[in-house]
Automatic annotation (TrEMBL):
Name by which UniProt lists this protein: Protein kinase C signaling pathway involved MAPKK protein
Family assignment from sequence similarity: Belongs to the protein kinase superfamily. STE Ser/Thr protein kinase family. MAP kinase kinase subfamily.
Biased composition (Polar residues): 1-14, 56-70
Annotated EC: 2.7.12.2
Domain Protein kinase: 129-392
SUPFAM superfamilies named in the record: Protein kinase-like (PK-like) (SSF56112)
Pfam families: Pkinase (PF00069)
Molecular function via GO: ATP binding; MAP kinase kinase activity; protein serine/threonine kinase activity
Amino acid sequence: MASSLNRSNATSTRAPGGTRPLPPRLYTPTTPRGQPPPPVLLPRLHIPLQLPRVQTDNLPLSSGDQAARQQSREVHDLGISTSAISQPSVTEMSNQLGQLALSPLRTPGTPSTGIRDDEEEYSLSDSNIKVMRKLGEGSVGTVHKIEYLPKRKIMARKLMAVYPDATNHRQIMRELKLLKQCQSPFIVKYYGAYFSADDDGQSIAICMEYCEGGSLESVYKRVAKLNAHIGEGVLAKVALAVLNGLVHLHSYRVIHRDVKPSNILVTGRGEIKLCDFGVSGELVDSIAQTFVGTSYYMAPERIQGDRYAVQSDIWSLGLTLIEVSQNQFPFPPPGHPQLSVIELLEYIIHMPVPEMDASKFSKDCCDFVRRCLFKDPKDRPTPTQLLDHPFIVKAASKKLDLKSWIERVWGVPPKKQ
């Protein structure tokens, strides 16, 4: 039996001459039945499927540019072709990963006796690690908590499948080289990598610092289950850490390009660190033209396929702070009908930006986030400029026991004295 909707359409008025009835009107889930669909107010969004490669060989180079160019050549010297390559052999991959082992680091003035944690070198392989449990899984790989048996050290290991594709191979090697170089208290430590082969195929295992407090995403979701919210003091420390991490990356001419709550980790000591540079890339004249990263956190200029710079990470930081403060992603606002991916991206570009709740957060906090979310990237400040914002200056001078905070979040009992 036909439904009432089909019966009503079957009795549609015929045009003179007995022509066929008009096709039934389609209603979207957000359109109440019996009402015409709302007018389309937003222009069609064009997302480029593939953008041209930026040609930089003939550009004049500063000393910083020359260093970045040399770094790129060094990655190619590891045996990576610029054209399609065959699946690398176990020996080739092992040799390349061996060259990217963590070298001993020593800060000037540090006593020569004793080795700091970040000076240790690890001979990593499947035979001397113990997989403890899965921490997460994403588009770029699976992350496990592991134990490095020779030193009884807990680490996080990310397994990334190896594909017979030059671009993917270069990206992985670039990430490893970057991880080796980026030694900062605001970026997760890199311990080394090794080639792993099992029944599921060939993978590169990247071993990094294990952050007991989890990601900022898991933290705020835990807080939400406790019917609470993360306060301004913690948000300020998050912003301070992310800005310092971005400034450090920028010193290597790198944009993170995937700042979001799941890529901001908290250690058991309450340290806040950036992770996951799988979509990072070297800057060319401080401008990039690639369309990668998590769409929802992209700045408007990136969504539209325009050229972008380090300010695009600032937009993502602003969205992250609002999301963490209200325990949900800020687009679209609460009460708005659910949107498809394309509709959501259109909404982000054309509709007003979200704001911090002025009744719950200080004027400085609200102003900081407002500046992060300037839609015009020319008006949006850089990470270095935002370090001078009153909200961040105050956060840097204020002591906050984040170790006790993260322990309370996860219900860790205090240690007995």
